[in-house]
Write a structure and sequence with these properties.
Blueprint: E1 2-5, H1 14-28, E2 34-37, E3 46-49, E4 52-56, H2 67-86, E5 94-96, H3 103-114, E6 118-122, H4 128-132, H5 141-154, E7 159-162, H6 165-173, E8 181-183, H7 201-205, E9 212-217, H8 227-239, E10 243-248, H9 254-263, E11 269-272, H10 280-285, E12 289-293, H11 306-312, E13 317-320, H12 326-334, E14 337-339, H13 345-357, H14 359-373, H15 376-399
Parallel strand pairs: 1-2, 1-5, 2-4, 5-6, 6-7, 7-8, 9-10, 9-12, 10-11, 12-13, 13-14
Antiparallel strand pairs: 3-4
Length: 400
């Protein structure tokens, strides 16, 4: 089988990390897996990594400094992926992801050329994400053209795998048959587990032993609202003096958030860089409660994968986002957090005060959270395998 995606380890990026975990699990199940990926510093153009054949293409350097430069970097990948794939043995099935956006167009063309089934593994829905974030004009000529192209390519795929039920609904709204969609949620890194506070090195190293830690861990980007979070920190400064809001990660909004926290004198807001992969269990478990945020208009277009790491760490989560999102559904169905669709700063502060005052509730919710993702990676690999076999058998029967 052949996967295509812009990033793959040692590149950093959530899409690459989860792809690597799936690819390596499929190898142990007997699949011959090749990944065509973008360039990585000091990585060879062709190599094997944990049994997975990794082919890297040359392309323009990816940057977030400019929308146009980022677009050109994306555009340079499509012909590079196409050319490298054609030099490889014909696969039995192709799986495309959504990094770069519209990569499904390349997989649709390869599918027709090779007469093999293609599966689209949707982590985001484009161009709608770009429209809602203001990257391109909403309902403009560019968005309309990209939507027509992506919809046509989507229909060339034998199956579409989405990471949430809300995203499945978006895909079906494009006219794609619901019976050909599959919902396979993302999963946390296998090494993430609950670490008790008295054994937690992150809390010790940063002087958080006696603090009530509210953590946001992940990208501080355009898709994530933070106004209510900083306002809640203002209220908590007086009502829960030992509360600390820990913002862990990087992103285009981090500098702005740091400046706003300084202006308001919020010494209970602390910023940390992304933590090493091997210490994620300690950093995620350092929290008493986690925050997961998402802009309401992105419902069904993205699903915050950071939630699954929180669940694996055995911590409750407060989701600040649309009630119909997969994240909101998971928290409600398993009673392992709270959903606040449009919270004010005071709303959020009051909810955090409630969680802070009830340690037994936190522990019980954390246990339920952990059960949600127990063995999730194996379940996902099995679901993918069934989907892939179905596609291959269907194409073989059609040819016969």
């Amino acid at each position: 089988m052949l996967f295509t995606n812009r990033v793959y380890p040692p590149n950093t990026g959530a899409t690459g990390a989860i792809l690597a975990e799936l690819a390596e699990r499929l190898v142990t199940r007997g699949w011959n897996v090749t990944v065509v990926a973008g360039p990585a510093e000091d990585a060879p153009s062709s190599t094997y990594r944990n049994g997975v054949r990794v082919e890297r293409v040359s392309a323009l350097r990816f940057t977030r400094a400019s929308t146009w430069r980022r677009g050109l970097a994306y555009a340079s990948l499509y012909p590079a992926f196409w050319a490298r794939a054609l030099r490889l043995p014909r696969p039995d099935v192709i799986v495309s992801k959504t990094d770069p956006p519209l990569q499904l167009v390349v997989s649709a063309l390869l599918s027709r050329m090779w007469n093999v089934p293609a599966v689209h593994w949707a982590q985001d829905v484009y161009p709608e994400v770009a429209e809602e974030l203001g990257v391109i004009p909403k309902n403009g000529w560019l968005a309309g053209g990209l939507r027509r192209v992506s919809t046509a390519a989507l229909h060339q795929h034998a199956r579409v795998v989405t990471v949430g039920r809300c995203m499945q609904q978006r895909i079906v709204a494009r006219g794609y048959p619901e019976q050909r969609t599959r919902v396979i949620p993302n999963w946390p890194p296998e090494l993430v587990r609950p670490v008790p506070h008295d054994e937690n090195t992150f809390r010790t190293e940063h002087g958080l032993e006696d603090a009530f830690v509210v953590m946001y861990s992940g990208n501080m980007g355009l898709a994530h609202p933070f106004d209510a979070v900083l306002k809640a920190a203002t209220y908590l400064h007086d009502t829960v003096p030992h509360a600390v809001l820990a913002l862990v990660g990087e992103g285009p909004r981090k500098a702005e958030l740091q400046a706003r926290a300084r202006e308001r004198g919020l010494d209970n807001v602390r910023f940390f860089p992304y933590q090493p992969f091997e210490t994620l269990a300690h950093s995620l478990s350092a929290a008493d409660v986690h925050l997961v945020t998402m802009q309401p208009e992105l419902e069904g277009l993205v699903v915050p994968s950071k939630l699954y790491g929180v669940l694996a760490a055995g911590r409750p989560a407060l989701f600040l986002g649309p009630a119909g999102s997969e994240a909101a559904r998971v928290l409600r169905e398993h009673a392992c957090g709270t959903v606040l669709p449009q919270p004010t700063g005071r709303d959020l502060a009051c909810e955090l005060e409630t969680w802070q005052a009830d340690a037994e509730r936190r522990v019980a919710a954390g246990r339920r959270a952990r059960t949600v993702v127990t063995n999730a990676a194996n379940r996902a690999a099995s679901a993918f395998e069934r989907t892939l076999h179905t596609c291959i058998r269907s194409r073989t029967s059609a040819v016969a």
